[in-house]
Write a structure and sequence with these properties.
The complex is a heterodimer of chains A (334) and B (324). Chain A is an alpha/beta fold and 334 residues long. Chain A has 13 helices and 7 strands. Chain B has a 7-stranded mixed sheet with strand order 3-2-4-5-7-6-12, sandwiched between helices. In chain B, strand 2, helix 2 and strand 3 form a beta-alpha-beta unit. Classes of the chains: A alpha/beta (334), B alpha/beta (324).
């Protein structure tokens, strides 16, 4: 009943190649930030989304700058997938004035309103309410915009999620709720903190729901296509549970304070074999859309982009206090 | 000009500003029925697109109000009693109060949270709080506490025309007083500008919200004893017009601050600290605070009355420092 209708939807070669490039940009940008974190070059923590890139990229491939995305503390991928630049991301995480938020937000708050990216959010579940509000705004404006809330299985335990299920279903909000189920709620296995299936919770509110392989960019893309169409037609919210895995820790600095691992090496190794990036590259190779030389060229391009972004950040000044004082209120000093 | 009660003045502000800006939406629990009367008639006038009853889901309500505002839709989020702001506190404290800074000034947040404050009607401890002290500590959200219908209308209209998050608190008192209110469509009261309700030379009384009426009665009693009171209503606690308060104390040399909040870390204690810092050499006597004790509010009417600020307590505090 509450299943998303299955249809044969597939992204064309051009979209697949563009998504591969975007996924690579996210991965390589985060590898840079992870290295900067471990070497002590960053003032704060980073929560990397390595392994989960396909979900952000496939969903956002359907969106325009006029659509909204609410994100999580693990938001670099959503930021880049929604069209944010590597320069503004890396500069922000390096606390530079040229960063997406002028160096005032940091990794957990990367935001680019000009792209409809309404922010990573340091409160688990915080982005769900904001995205639902953006969906309300879109509905009132009546211009066919929509909002996506990305969140994890950890956030699924927050009360705001069923609250938003209820309101979004009642009001038929143009909202797509995307649970990036990576199996962990910070450092706790999802099975120890989540009863039942998360998708069943959405179904209970009559919201069309689909569980997809989150490491299969084509599967997520197809599922999102239906949800986007529903939202644009005013048919209300959809729920997508995308099963995935984070290949890095909850936060990059965790090995410095955790006394024992909470995930087995075997588990991580097993999921590495399902890494969405090589998987998409292989698929494109099978389809004769990507040669190894093409992949090398793409890697080189992305590496150059990341290098440029890091140089941009390094060349940028830290923010001045005036930026803080003018960023608390509009036309009002704090 | 028309004579009206405070909730009617706010109702008029909603009507005028929602007519003026067709993007404004209002939602909350039972806003169609309107328990307090301030949202009465809005649904009939503006329809279900802009005026919506919500489920009793404060976390979603506050978060959604912020998200809508961030996306360009000014939102009025009606929380009924201010204690319910605490069940929806994430949207207020972690989102609304911080998002503009966290986004480096990208976000404009035209969101107004409305809730009633105060005890005195035997609603028990969970419907009686005056929680603005904790809101004052959030860092990035304005707080209006109007005491008169005119200020309520002007402050609400300013909030709805601005782009800053605002907590708008309705003092809830028995037999709320009525007053003359302007019908000028552009009647606005600025934030951060205190109202000097009465000029005087011997003693400054700063009173907030429902305490303003107590202070007016106390001032009359003190006048009969020959004490000339300067009475100040800050009207907004963020931003707080400390200049007007400090300048008054420099003139009178004495200060009583009246605040229904619990005493510990109250608005009164903050105002006392600011005056102690900035007007120490002008003070002729210790600053006195008339506040509520640091306990939850009981239900029994006699106990409630015993704990809340009232005119007699203000007069007693004033007499103490006039004798110094």
């Amino acid at each position: 009943m509450a299943q998303l209708e299955s249809r044969n939807l597939a992204p064309g070669p051009e979209r697949l190649l563009a998504m591969l490039e975007r996924m690579l940009l996210i991965r390589r940008t985060e590898e840079q930030l992870g290295a900067d974190s471990r070497s002590g070059d960053l003032p704060g923590n980073v929560h990397l989304c390595a392994g989960q890139e396909a979900i952000a990229v496939a969903v956002c491939d359907h969106l325009s700058d006029n659509d909204y995305v609410g994100s999580t503390h693990r938001g670099h991928g959503h930021f880049l997938a929604k069209g944010g630049s590597a320069r503004s991301l890396i500069a922000e995480v390096h606390a530079k004035s040229t960063g997406a938020c002028g160096g005032l937000g940091g990794s957990m708050h990367v935001t680019d309103l000009s792209k409809g990216m309404i922010g990573a959010n340091g409160i688990v579940g915080g982005g769900i309410g904001l995205a639902a509000g953006a969906a309300l705004s879109a509905q009132v404006a009546g211009q066919g915009q929509l909002a996506v809330a990305f969140f994890g299985d950890g956030a699924s335990s927050q009360g705001i999620l069923p609250e938003v299920f209820n309101i979004a279903a009642l009001w038929k909000l143009p909202l797509i709720l995307v649970c990036e189920y990576n199996g962990y709620s910070e450092f706790s296995a999802s099975s120890t903190v989540n009863a039942g299936e998360i998708a069943d919770r959405a179904k209970a509110f009559g919201i069309p729901t689909e569980v997809v392989d989150g490491n299969d960019v084509e599967a997520v893309w197809a599922s999102a296509a239906i949800a986007v169409e529903r939202a644009r037609k005013g048919e209300g919210p959809s729920f997508i549970e995308a099963k995935t895995y984070r290949l890095r820790g909850h936060l990059e600095a965790e090995s410095g304070f955790l006394q024992a691992p909470y995930r087995s090496e075997e588990e991580i190794a097993e999921w590495r074999t399902r890494d969405p990036i090589p998987r998409l590259a292989s698929r494109l190779a099978e389809m004769s859309l990507l040669s190894s030389a093409d992949l090398d060229a793409l890697e080189a391009k992305v590496a150059a982009d990341v290098k440029d972004a890091l140089q941009f950040a390094n060349d940028s000044a830290p923010p001045e206090m005036e930026r803080v004082l003018s960023s608390v209120f509009v036309d009002q000093r704090p | 000009m028309a004579k009206m009660r405070l909730t009617q003045a706010i109702n008029a502000a909603y009507f005028e500003e929602m007519e003026r800006n067709e993007r404004i939406v209002l939602f909350g629990e039972d806003v169609e029925v309107s328990m307090f009367g301030d949202t009465r008639g809005l649904h009939a006038r503006f329809g279900s697109k802009r005026v919506r009853n919500t489920p009793i889901s404060e976390s979603a309500m506050t978060g959604m109000a912020v998200g809508a505002a961030m996306a360009g839709t000014p939102a009025i989020c009606h929380l009924m009693f201010s204690n319910f702001a605490l069940t929806g506190f994430d949207g207020i404290a972690n989102q609304a109060a911080k998002l503009r800074l966290m986004t480096g000034g990208q976000a404009r947040l035209p969101v107004t949270f409305v809730a009633a404050i105060g005890a005195g009607t035997s609603t028990g401890a969970q419907h009686s709080d005056t929680p603005y002290p904790m809101f004052m500590n959030l860092g990035g959200i304005n707080i209006a506490v109007p005491a008169t219908p005119a200020d309520a209308k002007g402050l609400m209209k300013s909030a709805l025309r601005g782009f800053n998050p605002t907590i708008f608190l309705l003092p809830r008192v028995r037999g709320a007083t009525s007053g003359e209110v302007s019908d000028d469509p552009d009647f606005l009261v600025p934030y951060g500008k205190a109202s000097i309700m009465q000029e005087g030379s011997d003693l400054t009384i700063v009173a907030i919200g429902s305490c303003v009426n107590h202070a007016i009665r106390a001032s009359k009693a003190l006048a009969e004893e020959g004490v000339s009171v300067e009475l100040i209503d800050p009207r907004t606690l963020v931003p707080l017009d400390t200049d007007t308060i400090v300048n008054s104390v420099r003139k009178t040399g004495r200060l009583v601050v009246v605040d229904e909040a619990r005493d510990r870390c109250s608005a009164a204690s903050h105002i006392a600290a600011v005056v102690g810092d900035e007007a120490f050499s002008s003070l002729k006597a210790p600053i006195k605070r008339v506040t509520s004790p640091n306990i939850p509010m009981p239900y029994a009417p006699a106990l409630e009355r015993a704990l809340l600020p009232d005119p007699d307590k203000i007069v007693a505090a004033a007499r103490l420092i006039m004798a110094v």
